[in-house]
Amino acid sequence: MSVAILDVDHFKALNDLRGHIVGDECLAAVGARLTAESTDGEFVARIGGEEFIVFWVDAAPEQVRARTEQLRRAVRDADLPSGIDGAPLTLSTGLATTADLDADLDAIRRRLTAEADRALYRAKSSGRDRSAVFAEDPVTVPETDDVDRPSHEQVTAVHDDAAERRFLSDFNAHGRRSRQVIMAAFLLVCALILVFQNTVLQIPAAAGRIGSRFLIFGIMPPGVVFLATSLIRRFDRWSAEIYVVCVAVIVMAQDIQRVIQLPKGYDVVPMLMPAAVILSLGVVSIRLRLLLPAMALLVGALTVVELAMLPITGYGVIELLSVIVMAGVVARFAQRVQDASRLDWQTSEELTHRSLVDALTGLPNRRRFDIDLGRLVAGVRSAPWGVVILDADRLKDYNDAFGHPAGDALLSRIGNAVDAVAITAGMRAYRLGGEEFAAILTATTVTEIERTARTMVAAVESLSNPAPSAGTVMTASAGLAILHPDDDAATAYRRADNALYRAKSTGRNRLVTDRGPARSAGAASRG
User: How far is CA 266 from its chain centroid?
Assistant: First the structure.
């Protein structure tokens, strides 16, 4: 098993010089290049900030070293501009390999990652744009750490009443098209019976006249009503209920027709016709709490009609028992379909939720931030809103001195501190990536928004000294953009990002506010 960590050289300087937006474009280009160059058997991922990882299983060490160097050179040869003295982007890489897979896989992963991280910083310290292979005694990696990581229950979609309601809504929507198709096919069959009842079906004239009246005035209208309502969006949420009612009316009309015509010797509506309509309930995604009572009631009504109002024959009893057995089988099938659909839905919900959550801090991630900000700027804003971006000062130096595992623990503490302030204000913080956090804030006045943003900056500084031996205290710089009515999401983010780098360039550990074109140009305050 082998792990290589690839780190973009001088990326912090690139961000400081040209801003996060350009930095994001460079990261996307690096990711695209690594993806294009990767081969079968290589797992490539971005693990945070400017760091990427490649993972191999059952590959020879010489092959892994060659592939790591090929990937590093592929990014350099792509000639991606860095904006740092006009030089292209380069990578430094650290590689670790082990053949001892007897230990716990999670422990092996943490050990290999720590070893690759140490090799990476050997490559960094010896000049960058190069690769290094771990060749020291294995480092001791604790089995657990003290980072408050989200539990599995916190990361997955909780199966509560609200989740069940969302599932049933999706389940109902999934069956809407099936209900439309079945009802349209039923109406087509009715129309064909009307047209061909004398010529092809050779139904006696007297029975045909009665049957035509039932078809036109009793059986077909419920189908037309369902199809009409299914085309109106306001009735979407009631689609299953409307279908059940229409099916009940159709079955009732068919039963009445049987009661009238069968004693006269006209078996125009055999029992299997209303039975087929009832059984259609089980294949159109109707929730069980509605389906089971509806099927039981309709099959019970059909049974009462057959036994109490029509002549009892051996053939009729066999037909009736067949209908009851088929109804039970279809109900069981419908239950299995709903259970399988729920599992698929829960898996989809979990994957969607995980795609919106940062795995390290448990905070909503950049994707969630973009979605929420886009919804905000597209809506009506009655109160002032602001976007704040915070960047941990000199975290790169801390990572270089103590390694990524220690840096990850520190980032989790920073995220918790910033989120605690946001929650107090009734909002949530986001981790955008690397050492960058954000929040979307609202209050009755702009001054209150600025106060919350300054509290976030102060919360980072108030954390206990993360590295006493380094003689430093972790701080953060922040840029706040008060949203303007004409802002779109990209403009709002760019304004906050520009304000952040004004805070960086004027001394760090402070907040700079961009109040927008209709307000004052901006103000800086000590964090």
Answer: 58
